[in-house]
Amino acid sequence: MTSAGFVIYATAGVALIGAGAFGLARARDALRRIVAINVAALGVLTTMVALAARGGGEADPVTHAMVLTGLVVSASATALALALVRRMAHLRGEEDADGHDG
Amino acid sequence: MLAVSLALGLVRLSRGPDVMDRLAAAQLVGTVGVAILLILAEVTGDASLRLVALLFALLGAVTVATFLRVTLVETGTASK
Amino acid sequence: MNSIPDVLGALLVFAGTAFAVLGTVGLLRFPDPMSRLHALTKADGTGLGLCVAGLSLIARDVSAAMLMILLWLGVMLSGATAAHLVARRLLARQESAGGN
Amino acid sequence: MGIDAAALLLDVTLAATVVALGWRCVITADRFETVAVFIGISLVMAIAWTRLEAPDLALAEAALGAGLNGALLLAAWAETRGIEDGPAERRIAGPALLAATTMAVAGAGLAPLVGAEAGLAAEIAARLDQTGVSYPVTAVLVDFRALDTLLELCVLLAALAATWQLGAARPLLRGKLYGPVFVAYVRIALPLLVVLAAALLWRGATSPGGAFQAGATLAAAGVLLLLVNPAGRVPALSWAYRICASLGVLAFLGLGTGVTAVTGRFLDWPLSHAGALVLVAETAATVAIATTLALLVVGGRPVAQRGRVGKRH
């Protein structure tokens, strides 16, 4: 990957981080916040992948390993957060329709 | 190759307009993605791109199916 | 880069991408969801099929070609399934709308 | 010439698409669009990462984005429909300021790196023969940085444990079962996914692939299974889940401690058997990652349900 490619994708990554920060600060809704964090996370990971490829030769495997780890960790954190969101929705639904579901 | 990248751009645009066809659009994005990946595999000589494409191909229906499954049937799905 | 299989392959790939673009245009321009679905599935199958055929000619590698054909079958399968599911839902929605 | 220009155009298109989708994702007023667009970002991102010589990351992102995140987000979206928190978002200035600051800081941090030398690729390549595998990323994951991988497996396990504390799993999917077409699709796609996962695991030693990609692929296969399940529930195989989910941590701890007797250092594989040990550890990690991710999609502790026709009836 040439340095032009690095600049292109690193810029995209930074823009995604910005988008994620914007969404995170703006949203009140939990689901939106989670998605916004994920957008920012993808931005960070893209920037890292671009950094790993910047040399022109072989991509940096340490960075790739870190990104891979980051992907799985962010997926599990997202899953936990979404489980919390579903739980909250369930409890709120119970409040609304009293004793609807044991 | 130029055509493919153009197609991609168009596909992305198509996500906006409508309701149910978003799902169809998602499917098309998957297919165009497969095509791009296969061409890239040929151009760059990196065979593992074909595996990425295979994943795209096999998982293509998962998103559509999940969406239809999590929404209640027969009641007109969530639009906007 | 000038042998007959290469040229033929490149032509096929080009035709395939043209189909994909047409399918996208159809998805954007056709009036109702059912015909959009129609445009989509045709583009899916034909476009990718042509690409696969062309790339197999260029690659001259049996295992790569087999993998690509498997892949094409996979896309046809998941594409047909997805289209079927969406169409069923559309029909169900129409029926319930008509019943009211 | 032509190829270079086309590649540049492709890169610019992909990058611009991702950014446009990212912003669309956070500013749209439609919650469903947020989710749908995010799934789209995952797909385009997978393609973008192949352009950055990271096909292994693209594999993981394709499996996670198309299979797991999509299912998770859609399920959460469906359950929270109609109970959005608070009024529609109107705030602009504060978030915009935050976004601008974040981007400025990130940009300022990155700018000096544009012309800099790339990282550790050469170092890793020089020491690759000490690891028992010949693919650098796998070598980093299970050898040089094996401790990171162990801790990451612990994080996964902790996320699952925390999710289970939230109570019993409720049906993720409320719609009715599809007809035979979808069942036929799953019948064909499922074995192919399993074979693909095995291939990815095996290839990991020499080329892109490995435990994460294989695990994510298997987990996507699990999502498919969940989708054809009429009740949208999973059987309550509590002990089997526990064992499978903790297999990765157990294997890394067990093997890591075991090799201490030979090499004197935790997780330092003895050179003579490094290949085999790495394969065992990777297989265990694959099983663990697949089980954990699939159970995270289920989103709760699987328990036997009243009225469900189970073995104990």
Name a few traits of the molecule.
heterotetramer; B: mainly alpha; elongated; C: 100 residues; mainly alpha
Structural description of this entry:
The complex is a heterotetramer of chains A (102), B (80), C (100) and D (313). Chain A has helices spanning 3-26, 30-52, 61-96. In chain A, helix 2 (30-52) runs antiparallel to helix 3. Helices cover 81% and strands 0% of the residues of chain A. Chain A is mainly α. Chain A has three helices and no strands. Chain C is elongated, with a radius of gyration of 17 Å. Chain C is 91% helix and 0% strand. Chain C has one domain. With 100 residues, chain C is mainly α. Chain C is built from three helices and no strands. Helices cover 70% and strands 0% of the residues of chain D. Chain D is an all-alpha fold and 313 residues long. Chain D has helices at 2-27, 31-51, 55-79, 93-110, 121-127, 136-144, 146-165, 180-203, 211-228, 238-263, 274-298. Chain D contains eleven helices and no strands. Chain D is globular and about 60 Å long. Chain D folds into two domains: 1-85, no CATH class; 120-313, no CATH class. In chain D, helix 8 (180-203) runs antiparallel to helix 9 (211-228). Classes of the chains: A mainly alpha (102), B mainly alpha (80), C mainly alpha (100), D mainly alpha (313). Chains A and D meet through helix 1, helix 2 and helix 3 of A and helix 1, helix 2, helix 3, helix 4 and helix 5 of D.
Helix content of chain B: over 70%
How would you characterize the largest beta sheet of chain C? none
The SSE order of chain B reads: HHH
- Radius of gyration of chain C from CA coordinates: 17 Å
**Shape field of chain B:** elongated
Distance between the termini of chain C: 63 Å
Mean pLDDT of chain B: 68
Helix content of chain C: over 70%
Radius of gyration based on Cα positions of chain B: 15 Å
Number of helices of chain C: 3
Describe the biggest sheet of chain B? Answer: none
- Taking pLDDT < 50 over at least 5 consecutive residues as the criterion, the unreliable ranges of chain C are none
